[in-house]
Amino acid sequence: MSGVPTGLYVFLVYAISGRFAAVPSLIAAWRTGMGAPNGGVGAVLQAIDAVVIGSASLMVGGSIPCSAPLRLPSSAVL
Which terminus of the chain faces fewer neighbouring Cβ atoms within 10 Å, N or C? Predict the structure, then answer.
Protein backbone atom coordinates (compact mmCIF):
# COMPACT_ATOMS: atom_id res chain seq x y z
CA MET A 1 0.00 0.00 0.00
CA SER A 2 2.85 2.38 -0.81
CA GLY A 3 4.08 2.58 2.74
CA VAL A 4 0.83 3.93 4.22
CA PRO A 5 0.48 2.68 7.81
CA THR A 6 -3.06 1.30 7.44
CA GLY A 7 -2.97 -0.47 10.80
CA LEU A 8 -2.54 2.85 12.58
CA TYR A 9 -5.38 4.46 10.62
CA VAL A 10 -7.75 1.55 11.27
CA PHE A 11 -6.98 1.76 14.98
CA LEU A 12 -7.57 5.53 15.01
CA VAL A 13 -10.88 5.19 13.16
CA TYR A 14 -12.12 2.62 15.67
CA ALA A 15 -10.92 4.72 18.61
CA ILE A 16 -12.54 7.92 17.33
CA SER A 17 -15.83 6.22 16.44
CA GLY A 18 -15.90 4.56 19.85
CA ARG A 19 -15.46 7.93 21.51
CA PHE A 20 -18.25 9.41 19.37
CA ALA A 21 -20.53 6.57 20.46
CA ALA A 22 -19.55 6.70 24.14
CA VAL A 23 -20.05 10.41 24.79
CA PRO A 24 -23.78 10.57 23.86
CA SER A 25 -24.37 7.31 25.70
CA LEU A 26 -22.83 8.68 28.87
CA ILE A 27 -24.85 11.89 28.54
CA ALA A 28 -28.08 9.91 28.07
CA ALA A 29 -27.31 7.74 31.10
CA TRP A 30 -26.48 10.83 33.16
CA ARG A 31 -29.70 12.62 32.20
CA THR A 32 -32.01 9.66 32.75
CA GLY A 33 -30.18 8.18 35.72
CA MET A 34 -30.12 4.72 34.16
CA GLY A 35 -28.82 2.83 31.17
CA ALA A 36 -31.69 1.70 28.98
CA PRO A 37 -30.83 -1.25 26.72
CA ASN A 38 -33.53 -0.23 24.24
CA GLY A 39 -32.80 3.50 24.27
CA GLY A 40 -32.02 3.87 20.57
CA VAL A 41 -34.70 1.62 19.08
CA GLY A 42 -36.37 4.39 17.07
CA ALA A 43 -33.09 5.83 15.80
CA VAL A 44 -32.40 3.04 13.31
CA LEU A 45 -35.08 4.10 10.85
CA GLN A 46 -34.00 7.73 11.16
CA ALA A 47 -30.40 6.77 10.39
CA ILE A 48 -31.47 4.82 7.30
CA ASP A 49 -33.63 7.76 6.19
CA ALA A 50 -30.67 10.13 6.58
CA VAL A 51 -28.53 7.89 4.36
CA VAL A 52 -31.22 7.64 1.68
CA ILE A 53 -32.08 11.35 1.73
CA GLY A 54 -28.37 12.14 1.57
CA SER A 55 -28.39 10.36 -1.83
CA ALA A 56 -26.13 7.49 -0.81
CA SER A 57 -26.81 4.32 -2.72
CA LEU A 58 -27.95 1.31 -0.72
CA MET A 59 -26.67 -0.96 -3.49
CA VAL A 60 -23.07 -1.85 -4.27
CA GLY A 61 -21.52 0.54 -6.75
CA GLY A 62 -21.49 3.97 -5.13
CA SER A 63 -23.83 6.90 -4.86
CA ILE A 64 -26.18 8.15 -7.54
CA PRO A 65 -24.91 11.45 -8.96
CA CYS A 66 -27.29 14.42 -8.94
CA SER A 67 -30.03 12.50 -7.12
CA ALA A 68 -30.11 14.69 -4.00
CA PRO A 69 -32.50 17.29 -5.48
CA LEU A 70 -34.90 14.48 -6.38
CA ARG A 71 -35.01 13.18 -2.80
CA LEU A 72 -35.45 16.49 -1.00
CA PRO A 73 -39.28 16.50 -1.15
CA SER A 74 -39.33 13.17 0.70
CA SER A 75 -37.74 14.83 3.76
CA ALA A 76 -41.00 16.71 4.36
CA VAL A 77 -42.69 13.39 5.13
CA LEU A 78 -40.28 12.69 7.99
Answer: N
Longest Cα pair distance anywhere in the chain, in angstroms?
A: 50
- pTM, entire model: 0.43
Cβ pair 67, 56 in contact under 8 A: no
Which backbone phi and psi does 54 adopt, to 5 degrees? -75, 10
Length of the chain: 78
- Give me the half-sphere count of Cα atoms (radius 13 Å) on the Cβ side of residue 40: 10
Q: Which residues have a Cβ under 8 Å from the Cβ of 53 and sit 6 or more positions away?
A: 71, 72, 74, 75, 78
